[in-house]
Design goal:
Elements: H1 12-26, H2 32-47, H3 51-66, E1 72-73, H4 81-85, E2 97-100, E3 106-108, E4 131-134, H5 141-144, E5 155-158, H6 163-174, E6 187-190, H7 192-204, H8 216-220, H9 232-235, H10 250-259, H11 264-275, H12 280-290, H13 302-311, H14 316-325, H15 334-343, H16 346-354, H17 361-380, H18 382-393, H19 399-405, H20 409-419, H21 426-436, E7 439-443, E8 452-456, E9 460-464
Parallel strand pairs: 5-6
Antiparallel strand pairs: 1-5, 2-3, 2-4, 7-8, 8-9
Helix pairs in contact: 1-2, 3-6, 7-18, 11-17, 13-14, 17-18, 19-21, 20-21
Length: 479
């Protein structure tokens, strides 16, 4: 069905940009379900005067792309369809669906599909073109509030070496504007993930955005070491997730071991459970271990709670109130509490009561996209992955740690066992895994100016440039 194209001149730019992007993806006749989500958001954004932060963020992200840098959107607007169409976020909040890259045909997936990224590769039934799976089912109330008047929160994560450029760009766009004091200014935040992605893109020639989210071998790293051709004993871990953001630390590896995730949406559940409080220990973990619950049915994200309460028959306003209470551990009103008790099963209520804080789904999706990209490079481009990781992370560690990393495998294992009580040693763990895959951290010859390099018989060698004050822009070059 063709939706009426709105023509209010005052609001033309944001509408026009969004509809142009929607037509490009979903065809000239934007499907009703797509247009209605877009309209719902646009109405709230325009009525409350929230247009500027979106448009400024879109210009900054565009400029960064032109300069060869990806920025990650980490803020409540991460689940906005308007933000997705403007290119500010990669997260499409629509229900899971296929869209054809050739003829723009759209096919909605069933309710049993948790994420469009889980959909198997398929060719379009109309034209034989390639279908793209997309959509994470995130309601708009989660960022605009039930009345649609919560100001947008936009945090743009930039590579360390691009931070200053991005801040200057923001300054430029802000300088001639009168800003409503109640609306937060978009923020630029430097981040390791973006610095690593920039290096991996440059070193491998593989654009992070082209990496599939449903590759079985890549996803297997989150539950097994097999694809890396190493054993759990060799690397002291039952999963292949060392060095993968938010998935490498011991407590998360335990969750992965116990739940054996197999899909993108499973990993979103893991991310939600590991960032919430009261979600895992004494809650989901117990039910999964007892066989009375699964990863999929565990309460992991705020948006999931809201959608499930609606499915249990609660009205969306009450469902939102219940969900908002898990944002800051606030009590809900007696009337809503009574409704909750009458609508949901006992196990669900019990699980809900134990939760103090639930992670937002857009944040989990954003982390998992980054995790899967890292896992892809780690599996297929080991030399480049380890070099990029050491290049960015070794600045946080002193030389003593790097010295330990230059040891042989058995010596690294021994060092790890000796210093385990001191906490988390991500570089050393990664060095152990590298050794088992036939790569070594070595001291570089003093003439090169770099202190360390990564070597391997099978893959060649790369020097690791250290970034003084996080500003280094020199790229690693293949020897
Ligand atoms: Zn098609």
């Amino acid at each position: 069905m063709m939706m009426p194209y709105p023509s209010n001149q005052d609001h033309a730019p944001i509408r026009e940009c969004c509809y142009n992007a929607a037509r490009k993806r979903y065809g000239d006749e934007v499907p009703e379900a797509v247009a209605s989500r877009l309209e719902e958001e646009l109405q709230h954004i325009l009525r409350n005067g929230f247009t500027e932060p979106y448009m400024i963020a879109a210009r900054i992200v565009d400029k960064a792309a032109a300069d060869g840098y990806m920025m990650a959107m980490r803020g409540s607007v991460g689940s906005s369809f308007v933000a997705y169409l403007l290119g500010i976020t990669e997260i499409n909040p629509l229900p899971p669906h296929y869209r054809c890259q050739e003829c723009s045909r759209i096919e909605w997936a069933g309710d049993d599909v948790a994420s469009g990224f889980d959909l198997p590769n398929l060719l379009c039934s109309a034209c034989g073109g390639e279908f793209v799976g997309d959509g994470h089912r995130i309601p708009y109330q989660m960022f605009l509030g039930v009345d649609g008047n919560t100001p947008p929160n936009i945090d743009l994560y930039a590579a360390w070496e691009y931070e200053e450029h991005a801040k200057n760009e923001l300054e430029f766009h802000m300088s001639n504007r009168v800003w409503k004091r109640t609306i937060p200014v978009p923020d630029i935040i430097p981040h390791n993930d973006e610095s690593i992605m920039k290096r991996l893109h440059a070193l491998t020639g593989v654009n992070p955005r082209s990496i599939p989210m449903n590759d079985r071998a890549v996803l297997s790293l989150f539950r097994s070491t097999d694809a890396l051709n190493v054993t759990p004993e060799q690397i002291m871990s039952e999963t292949g997730t060392y060095g993968i953001p938010e998935m490498g630390i011991g407590c998360v590896r335990d969750m992965l071991r116990l739940t054996q995730p197999a899909s993108f949406s499973d990993l979103v559940q893991i991310s939600g459970l590991s960032h919430g409080s009261g979600t895992w220990e004494g809650n989901a973990r117990e039910r999964i271990q007892a066989g009375t619950g699964t990863l999929r049915t565990s309460l992991a994200c705020r948006d999931q709670l809201m959608m499930e309460l609606i499915q249990y028959g609660m009205d969306s306003e009450s469902a939102y109130a219940v969900t908002a209470s898990k944002r800051k551990d606030l009590p809900v009103s007696e009337s809503i509490e009574a409704m909750l008790q009458s609508k949901v099963p006992a196990w669900y209520l019990e699980s809900y009561r134990k939760i103090e804080y639930l992670f937002p789904k857009w944040f989990a999706v954003s982390y998992v996209i980054s995790a899967v990209r890292n896992a892809f490079y780690k599996l297929h481009y080991p030399l480049e992955f380890y070099a990029a990781y050491f290049s960015v992370y070794s600045v946080h560690n002193d030389d003593a740690d790097m010295e330990l990393c230059t040891q042989e495998g058995d010596a690294i294992r021994k060092s790890l066992e000796e210093i385990q009580h001191e906490g988390y040693h991500p570089l050393l763990e990664l060095a152990l895994e590298m050794n088992s895959r036939g790569l070594r951290v070595k001291k570089a010859p003093s003439s090169t100016g770099d202190r360390y390099r990564i070597e391997s018989d099978a893959y060649g060698s790369l020097e690791i440039p250290f970034m003084p004050n996080q500003q280094g822009s020199r790229l690693i070059s293949r020897e």
